[in-house]
Target: DNA-directed DNA polymerase
Amino acid sequence: MQMLEKAGKAKALVLTLVYQDGTTQLDPEQKLGPPVCGLLALMKNDLDCSTPEDPLGPNDSLVYLKLEHTPAWAQQHAHTSQEHFTRDVLLQVLSRSQPVVCYKAKDFLRTALQFYRRDLSWKRVAGCLIQDPQVSGWLLDPANPSSCYQDLLNKHSKRPPTTSALGVKKVSRVISGLCSLFWLNMELCSKLQSQGLWELYSDMELSMISVLAAMESHRIHVDKDALKRTSDLLGTKMKQLEQEAHRAAGQMFLVTSNTQLRTVLFEKLCLHERCENKKLPKTVNKQQQSTSEAALLQLQDLHPLPKIILEYRQVHKIKSTFVDGILSCMMSKNYISSTWCQTSVVTGRISAKHPNFQALPRQPLQITKKQYIQGKEEEVVTVHPRAMFIPQEGWTFLAADFCQVELRLLAHLSADPELLRIFTHPQADVFTMLASQWKGVSEVEVTSEDREHAKRVVYSVVYGAGRERLSGILGVSGEQASRFQDSFLQTYREVQAFIQRTVQKCHNQGYVLSIMGRRRTLPNINSPNWGVRMQAARQAVNFVVQGSAADLCKTAMIRIFNLVSSSGSLSARLIAQLHDELLYEVEDSQVERFAALVKSTMESLQHIDHLGVHLKVPLKVAVSSGKSWGSMSELHIPPSLSPPSPLH
DNA sequence: CTAGCGTCA
DNA sequence: GAAGTGACGCTAG
Model:
C-alpha cells in the first residue's frame, strides 16, 4: 500500500482525533466529548520550507483515517481492507522511531486501544513515545496549565496566529492547525531542554501517557446490583433520619437547607444561648450562626438534632458522591473506566475523575437498618463503596503501597539523623510508634484511627501548619499546639534546616526542584504581602517533597508497565493509582510472582543510577490482595524470590 | 499544612 | 433562570 509506505517514510507525523461533529482535538473543549469518527494525520517531509502562509510543503501530505467498525456480516466484502489499513497505520504510529506529535496524545492512544481491543493488545502502546505539547506546556509551568490548544499556542508561539479564522474553510483551518502543532511542539521541546526538563519529559512523562492510556482502556467491573441496593438502602435511611430530624425539631423543614436548619437551631431551639462558654463558628460572609460540622459538633450534647443532621449529611455524602455518582458513570454498562489526568496537578501527581477513584472512602460506613421482621428489630449493615469494585472471574486485585513515602523522602532530603534512624532501624511503623508515644498506650493498642491521627499531625507540622490549625488537628489548645510544634522541630532539627534552605533557594532562584528535576516556579515567594509570601514558602517546601514522591511513584508505574509489556506470560493490569499506592488486577495464578516483582521493583527505586538518585533511606512497599477492593489483606512476600532485572 | 475532585447552596 | 463560586467533605501525603 502506497499510503502506508509514505507514512512510514515521513519525517514526522502530526495527528489529531476528529469527532462526529466535525471538531478536532485542536478545537476548544466540548462539555460532553462527542464520539470519535476518525483520525487526521499530517505526514511532514518538508521540515524547513513551509511558511505560515502556506503551511503545507510540496512533499507534505494529509490522510484521513475512518475509525468505524464494519459489521461482521459485511466483513467479507468491501470495507475490511480499509479497516485493516487504518489498523496498520496505527501500529506503525506506535512503533516508529520518527517523531509523532499529538495534542492530548493519551486520548488518541486510548481511542486506538478501544477501537481495536480485539486485535491490539494494550501491551503494544508500551514502547510508544508520542510527543504531546499539552504535557510539555504543563511541565514548563505546572501551576498554569493551558485550558485548550489555542491557549497553549498563544502562550508559546513566537509568531502571531497564521490566518484569520473568518472566511477560511474548515479544512484549511484544521491543516494549518496541524502545522502549527508541529512547530509548537518543536518550540516546546527546545524550551524543555533549556529548562533542564527534557529527561523528565522524554523518559518519564511521555511514558506515562502510554501507562495512562492503557489504564483508561481497561474496564473495571462493578457490582451494579449491590450498588443499586445500597443506593436504595441509603435512601430509606435518609428518609428515616429526616423524620427523626423533624421529630427532634418539632416541625417539618428541609434538612438539606442550611438556612432552614439555622432557623430551627438558633431561632426556634435557641441552642446558641445554652453554650456561651463555647465559641460557635460564624458564616464567613454574613456573620450568621454557622451550621457547619464544627458548629454541630459543639451543639451535639445539648439536643438530639445536631447529631441527626451530622449523620444525615454523612449518609447523603456517601449516597450522592460514591453510590449514585458511580452509578451515573456507568450508564448502561456494568463497568467503569476513570479518566486519569496527567496535567492537572502542580506537584506532578496524577488526578482522576468520573469517578474520582482517588477519593473513595477508605473506611466503610455503619448503617443501622430498622426493619420490622419478628425477632430482630435492628440490623447493622456496612456500606463500603470500595467493595463494589470486583476483579473479573479468575483474577485478583493486588495493591502495592509505598509506605510513608513523603516522610522517607523528607528524611532523605533533610538528612535528619533522628528521622533517618527511624527508617533505617525500624522497630515499628513510624506513625504507630508516634501515636503510642503521644497517647501513652503500647504499640499493639494503637488503633488505625490513632495512627491516622498521628500521620495527619506529622504532615501538618512539617508542611508548616499554623498554631490555630494545628490545635484543631491535635485537639489541644493553641498554646499547647505551639509548644508541640516547637518540640517537634527541635527533635528534628535538620528538617527545620531543610525547610529554611528550600525557602531560601526559592527566594534566590524563583523556583524549586524535585529529586528528578520537576520544577515549580513560585512568583509569590517575593510578594510584599506577608500572607501570600508565606503561602508560597509552604508550597515550595511541599512541592519538593510531594513532587519527589510523585517522581518515584511514576517511575514505579512505568517500570512495572514495561516489565509486564515485555513479558510473554505476565498479564497484570494497572487499575488505579492512589498517589503512593498502585492497584493491579492480576490473574490468580500469577499473584505471588507478580507481587514479588512489584515489591522488588518499587523498593529498588532507592537507587536509580542513571539519574543519580541515591536515597539515604530504604523504601518499603506493603503488598495486599483481595477479591474486592473493599477487602484487601496483606501479602507477605519472601525477600528475594525473584530479583527482576530493572529496565529503564 | 499541601495537593486534588464532586456536591451543594 | 442558568451558570459561576466558595465552602465543605472525601482522598492522598
About this structure: The domain at 2-219 of chain A is CATH 3.30.420.10 (Nucleotidyltransferase; domain 5).
